[in-house]
Design a protein that fits this description.
Largest sheet: 3 strands, parallel
Strand content: 5-15%
CATH class: Alpha Beta
Distance between the termini: 19 Å
CATH topology: TIM Barrel
Helix content: 40-55%
Order of helices and strands: HEHEEHEHHEHEHEEH
Strand order of the largest sheet: 3-4-5
Structural class: alpha/beta
Number of strands: 8
Length: 217
């Protein structure tokens, strides 16, 4: 789980959301050298449900919200290895040009998967039924209209979910959903898939330590 691939500016409120581009490149090199292969969440889902083949040591690289650094810093590194990421798009980031539409199309043309991360990133456990439907189902509709992609997966803003939110995600037609729960994703928990958060303070050594610790389970 990544957010911004750049150094944090002075006084950034959440500096650990920023992974410097050089550190990101080093983390991807570590994955390559250790036999990992980046795949889409759709490919993992199809493996779980239909038995379609996956490469050895598959890993899904997710990028939450939608920032310019996805296109300017993450894309060139991943393209070097013919890898693609998964963009969990907060719709307003495209509409207010934090990550311009043409940049998102550039990601898609390079094999990236685009999934929904609501329209305005609220805590979904606190909103009323109409707002919940608007943020969950509405974000899927808007992304599909903008980019003509399936949008089969959902990402809970700030990892906040409960039974009511999961129900809304199911009714909207999503096949699975990702959380911020720090664990491996497992097929028995399709609507509460775990992820490994990568922080700006991790560096390559911390990144390797996180993955190596989880591989034993």
């Amino acid at each position: 789980m990544y957010h911004l691939i750049s150094a944090p500016p002075a006084n950034a409120p959440y500096p650990d959301l920023y992974v410097p581009a050089r550190e990101f490149a080093g983390q991807i090199r570590w994955l390559v050298h250790n036999g990992y292969h980046a795949v889409s969440l759709r490919r993992v889902y199809d493996y779980w449900r239909k038995g379609y083949a996956l490469p050895r040591r598959p890993v899904v690289l997710t990028f939450d919200d939608g920032y310019l650094s996805d296109a300017t810093h993450a894309l060139p590194v991943l393209r070097r290895y013919r890898w693609a990421g998964v963009l969990n798009l907060e719709v307003r980031h495209a509409e207010r040009h934090d990550l311009p539409v043409w940049r998102i199309r550039q990601l898609i043309s390079n094999g990236w998967e685009v999934d929904a991360h609501t329209i305005t990133h609220p805590d979904l456990t606190t909103v009323d039924a109409a707002r919940l439907r608007h943020e969950v189902a509405g974000s899927r509709v808007r992304i599909r209209r903008m980019f003509h992609v399936p949008v089969d997966f959902f990402c809970y803003p700030s990892g906040r979910y409960d039974r009511r939110v999961i129900g809304a995600v199911r009714r909207a037609g999503y096949l699975a959903a990702t959380t911020t729960d720090d664990s491996l994703a497992r097929p028995g928990h399709l609507y509460t898939l775990g992820r490994i958060r990568i922080n700006g303070s991790d560096g390559v050594r911390g990144f390797a330590s996180k993955l190596s610790a989880l591989r034993q389970y």
